Amino acid sequence: MTSNPSVNVPDSVTYLGGYVFQNCASLTHAVVGSGVTACQYRLFADCIHLTDIAIGGSVTDLGDEAFSGCFDLTSVYFRGDAPTYGNATFDAGIGSWLEPKSSTTLYVLPAKSGWSSSFDNLPVVTFATWDARVRTGDSSFGMQGNQFGFTIEGTDGLVVLVEASTDMTNWSTVATVTLTGGTYVYTDPDTQNHSTRFYRLRSP
User: Fold this and answer.
1) pLDDT for 186 beyond 50
2) Are 1 and 101 within one domain?
3) Cα distances (Å, whole numbers) of residue 102 to 105, 111, 176
C-alpha cells in the first residue's frame, strides 16, 4: 500500500507478491523495473486512478486480475516480448462479465516478439524509437509563475517519463507524457514544495 501518486520499482527488485499495490487510490503512475518477472495476482487491482504503467522487459507473466478495477488506466508500456496473461487481467470489473474492459491501449517496442494488433482484447500500438530532450532556449524553460517548466522535444508520438529528484540519487516519476507534433510543454505543479529540484527524461 502506498499514498504516493507514483511508484518506481527499481531494477534491483526481482519479486513483487500479489496485492502489493491493491487499492492504492492515490496512485496515478507506476514503473515496474526490469528485475521483476511477473505481475502477480491483483498486484495493482482497484487502483482506480492509475492512468499509466511501464512494465520492464523481463516480465513474462501477468497474473489474474493484476490490473482489474483500474478504471482510469489508459496506457501500458511494455519493454519486452508479449507475456502470458491470466483471467480478468485488465477487466474493469472484478468477476463480472457485464463490465467492459477499461479503455486501455498497450504500447510495445517494434523489435519485440509475440505481439499482434490486440492483446487480451486490448489494442496494441508500436511506439517509436526513443529520442527525447529538453529544449532550453525558449520561453517555456524556467519559472512560469510559481511553477518550473520546460519543453520536451523528440519524435512525434513518443512516450516520455519525466522524473524528479531532490538529491540526484533518488528519482521518482512525476509525469508520463506523449509528444504531440514532436513536443510537450511540462510544468511541475510541485515546484513550491522543494528548495532544490532536478529533472531527467527516460523511456517507459
Assistant:
1) yes
2) yes
3) 9, 27, 19
Q: What is the count of structural domains for the chain?
A: 2
CA 86/CA 52 separation, integer angstroms: 20
DSSP for residue 192 = G
Q: pLDDT tens-digit profile of 96-111? A: 444 545 588 898 888 7
The predicted structure's pLDDT at residue 98: 44
Q: pLDDT value at position 146? A: 85
Q: Does residue 136 contact residue 142 with C-beta atoms inside 8 Å?
A: no
Indicate the SS3 state at residue 122: strand
pLDDT value of position 65: 93
Short-list 147, 165, 176, CA closest to 55 = 176
Q: How far apart are CA 83 and CA 193, in angstroms?
A: 40
- Sequence letter at residue 114: G
Q: Mark whether 96 and 39 lie in a shared domain.
A: yes
